[in-house]
Amino acid sequence: MFKVRVLNHEIIEEILDMKQVIGAVEKVYTSKAEKKAELFPMVFHEFERGVADMDIKSGHLADADIFGLKLVSWYGENTKKDLPMLIGTTMVFDSITGKPIGILNAGHVTGMRTGAAAAIGAKVLARKESENLLMVGTGHISSFAIAATLIAMDNIKKVRIYDPMNIEEAKKLLASIGEELEKEFLSKYQGSSMYDEIKAKFDVEFELVEDIEKATSLSDIILTATPAREPMIMKDWVKPGTHISCIGADMDGKQEIDENIFAISRVYVDDLAQAISVGETEIPIKSGAITRDDIIAEIGDVMIGKASGRTSDDEITVYDTTGIALQDLMTSKLVLDIAEEKDMGTVVDL
Amino acid sequence: MFKVRVLNHEIIEEILDMKQVIGAVEKVYTSKAEKKAELFPMVFHEFERGVADMDIKSGHLADADIFGLKLVSWYGENTKKDLPMLIGTTMVFDSITGKPIGILNAGHVTGMRTGAAAAIGAKVLARKESENLLMVGTGHISSFAIAATLIAMDNIKKVRIYDPMNIEEAKKLLASIGEELEKEFLSKYQGSSMYDEIKAKFDVEFELVEDIEKATSLSDIILTATPAREPMIMKDWVKPGTHISCIGADMDGKQEIDENIFAISRVYVDDLAQAISVGETEIPIKSGAITRDDIIAEIGDVMIGKASGRTSDDEITVYDTTGIALQDLMTSKLVLDIAEEKDMGTVVDL
């Protein structure tokens, strides 16, 4: 009989703060580069093409003494049933004994670790003095990505928001983002010494943009988080020195930026195999815009000093973050540890 | 937020009865044959060879509107830590919406469905009038396999018990099996109309055997459940009309019976791909004793009338049951339904 902690969405939302998640995802990247973490093969099954599918992503983080999996299902018709389209569950096991230790709703952790990943791309690869951030896409992930990038960077002054599909969505995000940052992200630091620092970082100007070409040319950092299958940002619009973190592509055929941008950029990925098969990097390689050898490194290699990052202020850098199970596992372990300390969640006998 | 039922070992042990599990596993076999059930690729990871590993087996049972997975870890050193070597957890999801519905300790279900599978092999392939059962191996699975086979067959009069490694273990099982059958299996039917029937079926003679050659020649049905890597039962000892259910082989290199038995038998499996890669069927094919085409069918094909089973009383039949995730999922769904009805287990918000 094992004591296993079960954490639902609300508890995880209450527990996690973005700075910690950035730290957890950074740890995953460096552990992976040091070969202390590995991904297992993904299981993917389509119940019906375009209607419902599921995947099981799993891996081992030797550094953190855990292994585990995240199962995510996507049911396109679920909204009609008042259910979320994406439903995820994470299971964490102790890799010293094989014991189950935690079961978590995967939704909030996925949002947090995805935003953190995009921000780490900027932190590692963008110019330190970057002031202008452009958020392309205004879905669920956008506020996580904006919050994380504002926290990870020191000099952002303006955040432009663009939605390729629906300007109304962009207007909604523009109207709510200030309050969202305060309520969902800043509030976690109430009473902490970091509160003032993060409050100051969140004190930026937000602007809705309709002209993506112009907005691109004004940006130091661009984050893309859309389900696009056609490029929205073209090569000639990107100014020297820009950093782009591509979040959206997680399936073959998805593409957010012009593949020719890859040919003039220093390209980094979270996981080589996954980026090439399902990430933003897939199309540039398939189209011949770049070859596999043109990818400079996994980002963890830059972080441990095994590969070089940006080498000059006028280079364009691209970070393709496809999202790996290790991020979910490490972040979940973080939540579990905090929940244990605070005696939160439900402990069940399994 | 989802309501998910969590069931631990004790509750599952209390709920499940063997007749129901035999029914559930039969349903899996026929659904699979009717293409209403499918296995997903297995994930296997060795943390350290011969020391610790884990696998994730998953699949979809369209017939039962569920999909899910079983994660099993094996840690050889766990006994020193007073922990089980094998630890398993099953997760069941609703395949109409993708919602998680249950999380179960996988141990007891694994024992029950494994015993049931061996018994179904006998039920489908052995001669109806079989009286003499030989159990080879006296580990954890043996009492499940004996109970299930006594329930599934109508005329067993004698059960011989043989342990290839340690006669003391066989003596222990001989001393305890009567009480075990009563306490752990028959007790489930207390107050039911089936009680007397099953009590009568359990009323058999048990005998310890040391001479496996002689015991083999006296047996109508042989069940093998050992971790053997060398054959224990040789071709020339097996009398015409015998049925053998091989349970033990679940990894390449494992072998319980002489590969030449396959050459003179009608051979059936639970899952073709899995039997050939890790089951008892692996060695006979690798050694050339039989070819893939010599395997008559998956057992489900016999059950739905798509393939023929035993065609005469003097044929030898072999059933290689490797164990598939669908058995765990279907049996787990059965437990979950009963637990819901009886309001057992812990319902958590996930």
* CATH architectural group of the largest domain in chain A: 3-Layer(aba) Sandwich
Structural class of chain A: alpha/beta
Principal-axes shape call of chain A: globular
Which pair has the most extensive contact? A-B, 42 and 42 residues
- Main beta sheet strand tally, sense and closure of chain A: 8 strands, mixed
Q: Total helix count of chain A?
A: 12
Query: For the record, what is the CATH homologous superfamily label of the largest domain in chain A?
Result: NAD(P)-binding Rossmann-like Domain
Report the uncertain regions of chain A: none
Tell me the Rg of chain A in angstroms: 19 Å
Number of strands of chain A: 16
The arrangement of helices and strands of chain A along the chain is: EHHEEEEEEHEHEHHEHEEHEHHEHEHE
> Strand share of the residues of chain A?
25-35%
Overall mean confidence score, pLDDT of chain A: 96
The CATH topology of the largest domain in chain A is Rossmann fold
The tally of domains of chain A stands at 2
Quaternary state reads homodimer
Helix content, binned percent of chain A: 25-40%
CATH C-level category of the largest domain in chain A: Alpha Beta
For the terminal residues of chain A, how far apart are their CA atoms?
6 Å
Question: Descriptors for this entry?
Answer:
350 residues; 2 domains; ornithine cyclodeaminase, domain 1; 37% helix; 25% strand; eight-stranded parallel beta sheet; homodimer; eight-stranded mixed beta sheet; alpha/beta; Rossmann fold; 12 helices
